[in-house]
Write a structure and sequence with these properties.
Elements lengths: L10 H12 L2 H13 L3 H29 L3 H8 L5 H29 L9 H6 L1 H20 L2 H28 L5 H9 L8 H14 L6 H7 L7 H34 L8 H15 L1 H38 L3 H27 L13 H29 L1 H10 L7 H29 L12 H25 L13
Helix pairs in contact: 1-8, 1-11, 1-12, 1-14, 2-10, 2-12, 2-13, 3-4, 3-10, 3-11, 3-12, 3-16, 3-18, 4-5, 5-7, 5-14, 5-15, 5-16, 5-19, 7-8, 7-14, 7-15, 8-12, 8-14, 9-12, 10-18, 11-14, 12-13, 13-14, 14-15, 16-17, 16-18, 16-19, 18-19
Bound molecules: tryptophan (TRP).
């Protein structure tokens, strides 16, 4: 496994790029609002447990699957077993879908960064509803990711991550310190965040923590397989995994320290809970109010804060684009430039209706574009994250635990100079039993919750829309499987060596 000319140049470069993929909107926005909805500190504890119990093992599997193949996810899964190659198709399809909606949100962060000095408070709904502006900002955002991915793994992704990730971390720490120094309300915010109230944590909350851990670590969607394929002996599998998980979790926890005190501060002063935490509201409605309240300093903080969120989002979209491009480049033997530009263009085209639909629904517009009662962004999100991602993650573990087998996997790792030491027996048991079981639970309860959601009285009722979405997602899965067996199983799908430098 010699170092390929188009792989990562250094171990730290790989870790930063993978952390860049992992650290994203999920950490800075999803984690805080889910923490709020699920009882604060109790959710945080469950989340951290999920990272340790299922995140670490799954990530190791994915990096390992990519690295041993030095190839895109389809070829990588094929190398484990010819009949599981369809997982690779899934691992390429999911990021393609995510890229289309993630870029819309990325566009929002660009808009909120540049608009910081003019003031963002109260501008969200009008902005989101203004089709053209959303489309333009989305284009700018995709353009930034495009430039980086085009420049290649070493010259683009690694180079960008090495600069952007430290910047992100510094801004986040600074924002957290600032937030903690606001005085009034800080104590209440911290109490909520750090003092567990298990009575507020339901089964759904626990599931939400598991799902969040996966999403946040970019697992079950090819990202770690693709990035892992660009590494060789120079990286240590266990250490790198630990560092990536640590970075990702640290950023999520720090985001809590930045956001809770600030929002509680605002709410205490205004004697209201105007600063709601729900969904999109937290990032683009509540925080702008909080920033505005802080005057000129608030504008500066707002600028850096949204720039940081934008950085987190762009490094994630970079990895989404890379997974898909890698496959296109290697399978169809096209140049990186061609693959990335065509992909970015398609992604942009799809993001247009997604952005418009979200804006319409948020603005409560009649006749808004919805499918199965969801705006397109939520629809894509549910299809990929609730239904498909656990499938892919589950089989990533199962391929190592049952098809290749932990013995062979550990043997290969050892040959590669990667002795797992005391972790080896734990890994073997986890990858075979514990982790797949937990992931299966996420899938089953996730789908159950979709088809039988709770109504306002807390009763489970059948939702035909939920069923529709579920069928759609499994239909997509079936298409992926068929595509694989018809077109890909018996043809070469390329490796990293096929990319011309
Ligand atoms: N982990 C990213 C976040 O926290 C989102 C994400 C999920 C992602 N899956 C991915 C990013 C795959 C890149 C590739 O926001």
């Amino acid at each position: 496994m010699d170092k390929k000319k188009n792989g990562f140049a250094s171990g730290i470069g790989f870790v930063l790029a993978a952390a860049g993929s992992a650290v994203g909107l999920g950490n800075l926005w999803g984690f805080p609002y889910k923490t709020h909805d699920n009882g604060g500190a109790a959710f945080v504890l469950v989340y951290v447990a999920c990272v340790l119990l299922i995140g670490v093992v799954t990530m190791m599997c994915e990096i390992f699957i990519g690295r041993r193949a030095q190839a895109n996810p389809v070829s990588a899964f094929k190398k484990v077993g010819k009949n599981v190659g369809w997982l690779g198709v899934l691992a390429v399809l999911i990021p393609a879908f995510i890229a289309c909606y993630y870029s819309v949100l990325g566009g929002y962060t660009v808009r909120f960064t540049v608009n910081s000095f003019a003031g963002n408070a109260g501008t969200f709904i009008p902005f989101a509803g203004s089709g053209l502006a959303v489309v333009i900002y989305t284009a700018v955002f995709i353009g930034m990711a495009l430039v980086v991915v085009m420049a290649g793994v070493k010259g683009g992704i690694e180079a960008a991550s090495k600069v952007l990730m430290p910047v992100l971390f510094l801004i986040l720490v600074a924002t957290a310190i600032f937030s903690l120094s606001l005085g009034e309300g800080v104590k209440e915010g911290l109490t909520f965040y750090l003092k567990p109230d298990f009575s507020k944590l339901s089964g759904t909350g626990i599931l939400s923590a598991m799902g969040q851990a996966f999403y946040s670590l970019s697992l079950g969607m090819g990202a770690m397989i693709a990035y892992g394929s660009y590494t060789g002996k120079e990286i240590n599998l266990v250490k790198s995994t630990a560092m990536i998980c640590l970075c990702d979790t640290a950023v999520a926890l720090l985001a809590g320290f930045a956001i809770f005190p600030a929002v509680y501060h605002y709410n205490v002063i205004h004697g209201s809970s105007a600063g709601a935490f729900q969904g999109v509201g937290l990032m683009f409605q509540t925080l702008p109010l909080v920033f505005e309240d802080l005057g000129t300093v608030g504008k500066i903080i707002s600028f850096f804060f949204f720039a940081m969120v934008g950085i987190a989002a762009v490094t994630s979209v970079i990895s989404l684009l890379e997974v898909v491009s890698q496959f296109i480049i290697q399978k169809f033997r096209v140049s990186r430039k061609k693959a990335v530009s065509v992909l970015a263009l398609i992604c942009f085209a799809v993001s247009i209706p997604v952005g418009i639909s979200l804006g319409q629904v948020l603005g409560g517009k009649e006749g808004a574009i919805t499918v199965f009662g969801q705006n397109l962004l939520d629809l894509f999100d549910i299809i990929t994250n609730t239904v498909l991602m656990p499938v892919c993650a589950f089989f990533s573990c199962v391929t190592i635990g049952w098809i290749l087998g932990p013995k062979k996997a550990l043997g290969e790792m050892a040959e590669d100079g990667q002795k797992l030491g005391w972790f080896a027996p734990i890994f073997a048991v986890m990858v075979k039993y514990v982790t797949p079981l937990l992931i299966a639970a996420i899938e089953i309860f996730g789908v159950y919750d979709l088809i039988f959601p709770k109504n306002a009285e807390g009763l489970r009722i059948f939702s035909s829309n939920g069923l529709g979405i579920t069928l759609c997602a499994y239909g997509l899965l079936a298409i992926g499987v068929i595509l694989y067996f018809v077109f890909l199983r018996n043809t070469a799908c390329g490796t990293n060596a096929d990319e011309e430098a």
